[in-house]
Design brief:
Blueprint: H1 8-35, H2 38-78, H3 83-104, H4 117-147, E1 152-154, H5 155-164, H6 168-185, E2 191-193, H7 202-225, H8 231-236, H9 238-245, H10 252-263, H11 268-275, H12 277-295, H13 297-304, H14 306-324, H15 329-348, H16 350-356, H17 365-380, H18 385-413, H19 418-439, E3 458-460, H20 468-471, E4 475-477, E5 480-482, H21 484-501, H22 504-514, H23 516-521, H24 526-552, E6 554-556, H25 564-574, H26 584-608, H27 614-634
Antiparallel strand pairs: 1-2, 3-6, 4-5
Helix pairs in contact: 1-11, 1-12, 2-3, 2-9, 2-10, 4-7, 12-14, 13-14, 14-26, 15-21, 15-24, 15-25, 15-26, 16-24, 17-18, 17-24, 18-24, 22-24, 25-26, 25-27, 26-27
Length: 640
Amino acid sequence: MGKLKVKKSQKIACIVIVIVAIIFGCVGLYGVTSRTSQRGQALISEMRLQAILDTAGTGAVDAYVEAAKAEATAKVREEGGGMEEIREATAQAEEEARALAEEEGIGSVDLTSINTEPLGEALNVLAEAQEAYFAEEAAAQARYIEENEEAVVSEEASTEAADASAEEEMAVEGDAAMGDDMGGDMEMMEETVDLSGFEATEEMLALQEEVDQAYTALCEEIKLVFPALTDDIMEALKPTITSLVAQQGDTFETQYDRALAQSGMNPGATGVIMRQGKTLTTSAIGLLILALTVLFYTPLVKKLGFPRLLIGLFYILLCLLAFIYNLSLPGQISNTLVRLGMNGVLVLAMLPGIQCGISLNLGLPIGIIGGLLGGLLCIEFGLSGWGGFLFAIIVGLAISAVTGCLYGMLLNRLKGSEMSVTTYVGFSVVSLMCIAWLVLPFTSNIMKWPLGKGLRTTIGLQTTYLHLLNDFLSFDIFGVTIPTGLLLFFALCCFLVWLFMRSKTGIAMSAAGANPRFAEATGINVDKMRIIGTMLSTMLGAVGIIVYSQSFGFIQLYQAPRMMGFLAASAILLGGATTSRAKISHVVIGTFLFQGVLTLGMPVANAIVPQSTISEVFRIIISQGIILYALTKSGGDSRG
């Protein structure tokens, strides 16, 4: 093994980054550990108390102003004035009252000027009561979801139910619009939870009573500071004050930010370090990873390639940001593993096409259509469970084998133009099936529109094989849910393709794809090998969409399959494949990176810029950017 050659500039950059990482790490660890100390708890209590007093002070000023306006109104009426005089008098009284309140400090108080011990004790009692309530509420909701599987639904499912009651013409128009984007967005449906039927438990009601009692005790202490406050005002301020004290899923950061925004007090350098401790510590880890990347840059680029190294670092960055923004990193990793399994077989379908010589099989929708027909027939015949899943696969394989053979024969007649032909054929088949979905004689009410003819765009799999692979032997480890069945099925498909590629036929197919003239000279029927590779690719596409749909929870028709060939091609090229050579490792690496970045990209973007559409823009930039990279890669290779 040769000695690692590192440039002097790399060493210097690595040392500087490590020093910065050590500083960040030390300061961050001090901030994180200080949070649980007496000083950290005292800081939060002080900020929270100041925020509550400021809120109560606002109520006190409002009460003072209302009293002044009432007095002015009464005086004008005694003098026999009309409504115009009352409005003028009350406006003037409000202006003078607010000015006087500000001058006399009626709505503000300095914590150093009052005895905060009784207030602090009452506040702590309220905080503990609220935290106990929120803990019981979260546990009760989790039990409700577990006992009522129908509570877990999706936005698209709700949309489908709404469409079912609408007119057919309107529904079809909506489907066409939605279908235009579903090729790249099918995987972006996220599960939401419907808790409309959830009711508070007896334990929650008892804890809520304790919260009310603690709030009443706190109000009595606040009234000693602001005598103008009444019970009605304190009741009106209850939602604001209790939300300042504690909320479900609270962290040090959320408590700090709420209190700081409401109080506006200066927490000092120590407070800022406590608040940013987690960010600084996480940044230190990121800098250490960056330092290692700089030090081993040359061998990493040689081994992985620059695009995979860059996107790999970007994925690590997203993981660190998810941790900083409290986005449940284990949950995001769980989603990434699910998407790896559900998209993996579709990406694997690209491998035989590349190896046999047709390059990227952008006509993958031909196979996907076969898999969709298998799934629809499964619903039509009322099959479910493993039997229904295997039936859908068998039917999908049979249909895609025939269409794949015809597709391969077509490509043999148009050698040299495979990229454009596969794209055209894939789009054409999808467009043709848009008509077929409206006229095929399916009779199941699950699939048909309630009015007229034709199949719905979104068809649920709740009655067939929903999450069959996802739930099989799944388990949790450190909060990460491992979809064992889904990953095992993907691994099985990879293993079968690996075995085929090492068989006599597979070796001959790879030889025909790598050098057609040499292969033909050795007696290999190149056209036959291309047909076999095309058929295998198409059949894997059929299996892939069935696996995808069972994990996704729905079958998507019409324009949905249109772009899936591009997404699969992008993933395998991202993994290290070229248009003339691909391996199983390229499939796994590319799918993981592609889906991992998309999975983490949207929630991180939403956390950074909340209440915006930046996550959708971010997703489009990532997905379309990788597709653009794939197309540039596909144009630069030739078969020697």
